[in-house]
Amino acid sequence: MNSIKKISVIGAGSWGTTLAILLADKGLDVKLWTRREELSREIESKRENKQYLPGIKFPDNLIADHSLKNALENSEMILSAVPSEFLRQTLKEVKNYFNDQIIVSATKGIEHPTSKRMSEVIADELGSKTKIAVLSGPNHAEEVSKKMPTASVAASKDKKTSKMVSDCLSTQSFKVYQLNDVAGVEICAALKNITAIATGVCDGLGFGDNARASIITLGLMEMNDFGKQFGAKRETVYGLAGVGDLIATCISKYSRNRFVGETLAKGKSMEELKKDMKGMIAEGIPTTKAVYEYSTKHNIRMPLTHQAYEVLYEKKDIKHAIKDLLNLI
Hints:
- By secondary structure, the chain is an alpha/beta fold.
- Helices cover 53% and strands 12% of the residues.
- The chain folds into two domains: 6-180, NAD(P)-binding Rossmann-like Domain (Rossmann fold, 3-Layer(aba) Sandwich), CATH 3.40.50; 183-328, N-(1-d-carboxylethyl)-l-norvaline Dehydrogenase, domain 2 (Orthogonal Bundle), CATH 1.10.1040.
- Helix 4 (84-94) packs parallel to helix 5 (118-126) and helix 14 (284-297) crosses helix 15.
């Protein structure tokens, strides 16, 4: 296989839709799988994903389909943008039509309660010999879909696989670099969302730039400490997949996880937050639980994650959590 021509994208949220459009714009044959049949019908009739990526039109060579069999038929690469909490079950369905395609994970999260990274979940369900790559970096769908300059990384244990994925995904505006630190990339991708929630809380409470910078710095320290448990490389943590994605997620108006923190700081409940999200998923919420439980079990000191967990899952008052965090650091 010298070049990839036929691609299946599973998961029709904003990121999956964006990647499907990016690849179709390159002239590749792309099928976008949607779990909900009504969504695929709406996309096909309007040639736009109005719920998750409004205003961006679909190229003619991009097909939305509710059937996994149809979506995966004859594809050479599967790009997964399924939320972490639904990935394993989705892969059990994918397995019925899997034909040794390259699998690219574009999901930034850690599975609960297993504490497994997305590439490990893929290997569990599709086999240890599956060719797997992970895509990550500071890449908000809203900007990538508008062809704004973006840098990202594709990491795989197999150099040939990472090169093929990088070549396939790269465009003039979307530059994809190759790495081999799969664990490092996935840990950074997951943990930056926890910091973004905390940053959103600071912004929602009006604490200013100084507090925001302190929270981001603490988040980077926790990302590095947690990553060491999985062999994450220093250059990964301080590169695009680490610092780059951390900054983008913590300061961007597009960040769902930052929005979570801001919303909670305004006194809204988790139930109200879910309504405000309008079907969008903030990976930082389940990731906080997975990382908190793992760090507690393995005695990894993570005060920011600890306080985020208590706010999200134990209904701790946010101002008390901030005070306790300041006392801990």
